[in-house]
Amino acid sequence: MVTIGIVGAGLRGRLFAEALHNRPDVNVVGLAEPSEEVASQARAATGLPVVSSHAELLESLDPDAVIVATPDFAHREVAVDVAEAGKHLLIEKPVAMNLDDAQAIAAAVHRSGVRCLVGFENRWNPHVVQAKAAMDSIGDPITASATLSNSYFVPTTMLSWAAKSSPAWFLMPHTVDLILYLTSRRAVSVTAVGSRGVLAKRGLDTWDVVHALVSFEDGSTATLSSAWTLPDAGDGIVDFRFQVVGTEGSVTADLSHQGLTVVSDKYRSTWPVAGRIGRSQVGPAVWMVQDFAAGLVDGGDLGPGIDHGVLVTELICAIEESISSGQTVQLPAPRS
Fold first, then answer.
1. At 49, phi and psi to the nearest 5?
2. Other beta carbons less than 10 A from residue 74's beta carbon
């Protein structure tokens, strides 16, 4: 039996608790949440104990592993303390929003020898799984592109901490990981631009749109785009598309439009692989956390680890640096 605690009892924390409910050889012992309002909602939704801090969760509930589902900027203290307590980790992407924090978490994970999964949930997305399986058939990658954007609803309503984040930090970890995973290439430089001002007029001083050109060691390239300014009147809150073009073919996916549309008061695309099907909760985040728990039980592979998570943070830091400087940023060579 593996026992798991969850730090952060918001939407994601509750999703993970539900996903692990009644899983074989897994017991969620409780959650930690400093907001009493959120904690009360989580108790009602999950029926689990909710304590006020990660320190209390570690001391009083003593889980074997901890899921860090706090806001992106609040990972370091929790993750370092959890690793130093000898607990295995699932950390939501990005590992951290600066390289200092990411490296501190990685150092704690390596010192303690605990296992760690970074939550790049699209590794469990059926479109991505099939795209990866098809990569051998398209030859060597020449170029790739990925767009992942949200409507205004996400930064203005869904995320209470959007002003402390940006499309680069909230969305691009997914697409950076996606392109690195599909192409298996090492990025060597980044050139990026961004615009801001529209969200600022709505009280959020952050980037509206970020575009990045990533160059790889073999001469191939990738373009990444993310925005937080899609109209709420559109057909969904997410626009997610990607393509890899190779010497012998290509792989293309449109995850925004999966063949199901609903027209009532508005036209919208609906993702069929989400929510519940029969007795089972489904979706990439669900399958990711279930695989994490299963890997702890059977000792199998967990998925992308802490060093890959640091690499993604490093690349997004380079994107921010390039936007600020107006220059191409060279990425450091891999550490031995």
1. -65, 140
2. 18
pLDDT of residue 336: 61
Same domain flag for 251 and 154: yes
Q: Which residue, chain included where needed, has tokens 């300014």?
A: 229
The number of domains in the chain is 2
Closest CA to 180 of 211, 210, 141, 149: 141
Same domain, 160 and 292: no
- What pTM does this model have? 0.96
Single-letter amino acid, residue 202 = R
Q: Residues 283-322: pLDDT tens digits?
A: 999 999 999 999 999 999 999 999 999 999 999 999 999 9
Residues in the chain with pLDDT values less than 70: 336
Our CA dihedral for 312, 314, 319, 324, rounded to 10 degrees, sits at 150
3-state secondary structure of 229: coil
Which one, of 43, 175, 75, 46, lies nearest residue 122 by Cα?
175
- Both 252 and 137 in one domain: the answer is yes
Q: CATH number of the domain at 251, please.
A: 3.30.360.10
Residues in the chain: 336
DSSP structure string for 119-130: E-GGGG-HHHHH
Q: What is the distance between the alpha carbons of residues 17 and 7, in angstroms, rounded to a whole number?
A: 11
Which tokens go with 229?
């300014």
281: tokens are 């909760």
What letter would DSSP give residue 230?
B
Short-list 71, 2, 4, 62, CA closest to 35: 71
Which structure tokens are listed for 203? Answer: 């009280």
**Domain residue limits at 232:** 126-275+312-330
Distance CA 168, CA 322 (A): 12
> Is the bond leading into 304 cis (omega within 30 degrees of zero)?
no
pLDDT in tens, 20-74: 998 999 999 999 999 999 999 999 999 999 999 999 999 999 999 999 999 999 9
From the number of C-beta atoms within 10 Å of its C-beta (0-12, 13-18, 19+), residue 178 rates as: buried
